[in-house]
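Morning!

This is the sequence you dropped in the shared folder:
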Amino acid sequence: MTNRRRILLFVALMSILTLGATPARAGFDDVVRAVESRYHVHHTGIPFFGLVRFALWVAQPDGVSDLQLATFEHAHIDDERGLAEIVTRNAGEEFRPLVRTRSSRNGEVTQILAHPMGRDRVALLIFAHERSETTIVRVVVSMDKFEEAMNKPDSVMASIR
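The structure's back. Tokens below.
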């Protein structure tokens, strides 16, 4: 077998494994597309991020089994309320608000939406906007770690430091 065929076989195998390894996106792509369409911006891609997602699915550090990230850099969006509404509307009906903050003084908005995925996992959609940067994160975490974070936030923050 030639090197080229080995490389193609490896890429095909990794593609199949990665596609099978990632759970349903639960509205993440819809949210990103809606923001891009409404505000005529494009998210910044991160090279090899698919490999990071695959590694998370395999290793599941601290109960995290999937992660998606979209950042909009230098996107001057002055419609904070509209932006937050787009995120909520396109996340999907299964997501429920967990945290919402808004600062009218400096235009910062943060939302955390949660979606239980069975008895053992929860998907969190985290949206943060400030001035010229917007970040949307979707993370799937074990229910045990989620409950620990909700019940003992200080212990979770201590483990991060």
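Headline: Residues 8-26 have pLDDT under 50 and may be disordered.

More detail when I'm at my desk.
O.
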